[in-house]
Amino acid sequence: MMAEELKVIADFYDFMLWMIKHTEKFPRHHRYSLGLAIENRLQSILGLLLRAKYTRDKAPILSEANMELEALRFQIRLAKDLKVLPVKSHGHAAGLMQSIGSQIGGWAKRKA
């Protein structure tokens, strides 16, 4: 197992933990709609990354993880636009998602 695979999973886990701490602070209405949708998508992406780690044909799984990450970007942008996520936190999240996306892309290229 390559260190890069472990790094993207560890980085995503840290991002997930950070993001859930923010969704917990959403007002009640958004907490149980957008907040829950974000948390579900985070869980889904983590599951895909873990599945890719233990699967021989990683490309389709990593591609799906990238698509889910792209959808997550829009959900987090929506949270910012609804003013339930501070602009500064959105900027931090966007940077982390960019890094994670790059790592997933690099992992996919190495396995291609």
Based on CA inertia axes, which overall geometry fits? elongated
What is the CATH fold-level name? de novo design (two linked rop proteins)
Structural class: mainly alpha
Number of domains: 1
Determine the number of helices (DSSP H or I, runs of at least 4 residues): 4
Report the uncertain regions: none
User: How much helix, percentage-wise, in residues?
Assistant: over 70%
Describe what this molecule looks like in 3D:
It is built from 4 helices and no strands. It is mainly alpha-helical and 112 residues long. It has a single domain, classed as 23S rRNA-intervening sequence (de novo design (two linked rop proteins), Up-down Bundle), CATH 1.20.1440.60.
Q: What tags apply to this protein structure?
A:
112 residues; mainly alpha; de novo design (two linked rop proteins)
How would you sum up this structure in a few lines?
This protein is mostly helical. It has 4 helices and no strands. The longest helix has 26 residues.
Topology at a glance:
Elements: H1 3-23, H2 28-53, H3 59-81, H4 87-111
Helix pairs in contact: 1-2, 1-4, 2-3, 3-4
